[in-house]
Amino acid sequence: MKHLATAGRRRGAAIRSLPAFFSVIMTLAAFAMSVNSIPPLVTTVIGDFSITLESFGYLFSVQFFVFMLASFAGGAFLERTDLKPGLLVAIGLAGLSASFFIIPHLSTFMELLVWIIFLGFSGGLVETFASVLVSGYDSRGSSRLLNLSQVFYCVGAIAAPQIVAFLLNRQVQWGRIFVFFGFLELLITILFIVFSYDDILGRSNAVETKHREKILFKDAAFFLLGLSIFFYVLSESFLVFWLPAYQESYYLFSPAEAARGVSLYWIGLIFGRLLIVFISENNSLWKILLISTAGMFISAVMLSFHWQPLILKILIIVIGLFSGPIWATIISAGKSAGGNPRFLAGVIGAGSLGASLGPLVSSRLIRYGGFGLFFPGLSTGIAILFGLLFFSKINIKHKELSSQ
Question: Number of structural domains, the chain?
């Protein structure tokens, strides 16, 4: 605990309260549960709504597109009002909780579409501005606490399907399962409001202004970091979405065994993020980003070849290990470059666009070239990511030197 309490201290900005900090990162677990509790219930839900599986797939894309809109809209709102990011987190948490209480009462596809828009906007507020809050706890040039917060996202992402499976095995109706998650979200909302009220009330008096007067899309640093996180999330969603089907097709795994492959990726992701929490602060953000991306690229290239099942599973863990630190460290690099909440929210929103387009782009690629293009296509996306991060580093370092 003492290590966590001091990890965010450099300019006199230590963690003010451990309960407050943990209440913030618990909101990311809440967001992860809101996203990952739905896929295991899709086949059950579509029967009651008389819609196709493909139609529900489009709803997921809509969800993350609206997430992006929430990120940009929320960032612009904070810049105009100087209100604190925690206010938007609280509103988003209340929206997530309400959405789970509402869905059992819906009956048509149009109602479901409105619901997914509401869910996506609420989730966008939670993950975007909870991450902005966590970045404020981190010292400049560090991504330790933001990576730690993403471990809690992983915990929520792993726990939600397990909770769904447990309740389904006990013949609990899908509507009641959503209500159960609604109560979990409500509990996290109350804990956040109680312990983080200082991050919710009043006006912000510590906003970075370096990017405040710029038009966001004309800011080269924003453009490059936004594209970087877009390609990272695009690659990650591509991998998670198609990995089970790839293993079933190329390795003749059973569906259950193929599903465990995704769990191995999440395990690697968790350890990759935890590793950053404990490494020396002498390792720069750019060093972490470029080494992680290079490792991710090499792993993807190696996975392009056929291996024994044990080697395959090890490589899946390794690619998760290298993938782990990238998202949080890109956000920290944006903060280190002087990005204000609107800047950081926009970068996070660009990542959600990658999540929205990932299933659509990957579906086209697989349909065109089959699973033989799976890892070569992924390797190409990661290579582009490496190039974008390299140019981001040059651009931001040049600006830092010219401003001295």
Answer: 2
